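User: Predict the structure for this protein chain, please.
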Amino acid sequence: MVGCSGGLGDNGAVPTYRDEAVVLRTHKLGEADRIITMLSKEHGKVRAVARGVRRTSSKFGGRLEPCSHVDLQFATGRSLDVITQAVTLHSYAEPMGRDYRSYTVGQVMVESADRLVVEEGLPSVRQYRLLVGALQALTAGTSDGPRPPEMIMDSYLLRAAALAGYAPSLSDCARCGEPGPHDWFAPALGGAVCRSCRPPGAAQLRPEVLRYLQALLTGDWPATADVAVTTARVGAGLVAAFVDWHLERSLRTLAHVVR
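Assistant: Here is the predicted structure, written as structure tokens:
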């Protein structure tokens, strides 16, 4: 629960608050309600009840689907707060629903945000802004023009993991700190490693792949403009392996992404 504690205010009214949020997931509650899990701007991850949202007559049911960016009003409850108003800020879910690649990538993004932001009620402004920016890039293009949905996803995964404290080392050796660049990548050790620290099974890291991963991590979209398909594919495999290792189990939605 976030916001004020449950109960009535001094004037007898239930305390309320507003926030912007991206819907991460939903699940059913009772016959007509849903519990909505969101990443909000001011309150971090929030779970709240949307009353009657599964009825056809619901006034804001369609606004609370995963990937929706909404302005919400909440009434404070004893266990879960209640959504009383929902205004669409950006309907990312609608254009994504018309393109399977974008849809699956969007689902990976919101699942990743849900997994990386663990504590509820603690501000996660940078994670929130990164997610909104990634969804905007997915539906409207990056600052340097359109990019493949999977490329936007891989950039988001690396940057979100970095914000959560799992930044990959892409210059110095992740184990001993020897200055790079290095030729090997070990997700379990945290990124690029030197020959001396290379564990069994480490992936060879070609210079063009290293540069590509560095561009994704910093959001340098101009540097990704002419990347070869094979380079992007190898980079995608390393990103997936790195994120899976640090999340301790695979992202369920990543299996549906078309490479």
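The helical segments are 93-96, 100-116, 125-140, 149-163, 207-218, 229-247.
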